[in-house]
Write the structure tokens for this entry.
Amino acid sequence: MFKKLGFFLFAMGVSASYAIAGGEPECYSQCDEGLDQCMTDHPRSPGACTKIHQMCYNSCAQE
């Protein structure tokens, strides 16, 4: 239960930080760094990390 809550809070923090970032190339590099960190912190959740990464890219593209 605590792992799911922790992962949810992590995902919310990651998505909030990406919302602040602009649509510049640094936005995409922040997405890539976030993916690397997610995969390190949650090696058993590659699908969730990939989904967060894709949402980040979509956010960068909209700005």
